[in-house]
Write a structure and sequence with these properties.
Layout (H helix, E strand, L loop, with lengths): L1 H19 L12 H52 L2 H30 L5 H26 L1
Length: 148
């Protein structure tokens, strides 16, 4: 009889243990007003940062477009000067202009990427576009030194 009480007590203990340790379903909790306010403030800060980046991006895009246009105009002026110096100068200019045109194409491609980039990738793209422009400007200056 003791063994029956022992077994019954053991079974009852196991049942209580399993029922008490069973999974409880998570009840949905409502966020506190402080948490809701913090979420709102973070959202507003992110929006403000994106707006600032977009305005800075617009400034850089406008400046870079103006610089590209100016270099192309200056290159046209150099072409006229080379033409004045004769056929040999013009032939040499055309070779150098071909190098300029390759770098101009690269700078324009980087510029297009810059215009199309999102706020998250803008800074890296802007650095690549600036490097391409700097290389183009360097090539122009090397050519200009010969025809001024």
């Amino acid at each position: 009889m003791k063994s029956h009480f022992y077994k019954a007590g053991l079974m009852l203990s196991l049942i209580v243990l399993f029922v008490g340790c069973g999974k409880k379903e998570n009840e949905p909790t409502t966020p506190s007003p402080e948490m809701e306010n913090a979420k709102k403030e973070v959202g507003e800060a992110v929006t403000a940062a994106k707006t600032l980046i977009d305005s800075k991006k617009d400034e850089v895009v406008k400046a870079m477009q103006a610089n590209l246009d100016q270099l192309q105009t200056q290159m046209t002026d150099l072409q006229a000067k080379a033409k004045e110096k004769g056929e040999q100068a013009m032939a040499e200019f055309e070779k150098q202009k071909a190098q300029f045109d390759v770098k101009l194409t690269e700078a324009k491609a980087q510029f297009t990427k810059l215009k199309d980039s999102g706020a998250d990738a803008w800074k890296g793209v802007q650095e690549a576009a600036q490097a391409a422009y700097d290389e183009l400007e360097k090539t122009y200056n090397e050519i200009a030194a010969k025809y001024k």
